[in-house]
Amino acid sequence: MLRKLYDWTMKLAERPHADWALAGVSFVESSFFPIPPDILLIPMVIAQRARAFTLALIASVSSVLGGMLGYAIGFLLFATLGQWIIEFYGLQQAFARFTEAYNAHGGWIVFTFGLTPLPYKLITIASGASGMNLGIFLLASVAARSLRFFAIGLLLYWFGPVIRELIERYFGLAATLFTVLLVGGFAAVKYLF
Question: Fewer Cβ in 10 A, N or C end of the chain?
Answer without folding.
Answer: N
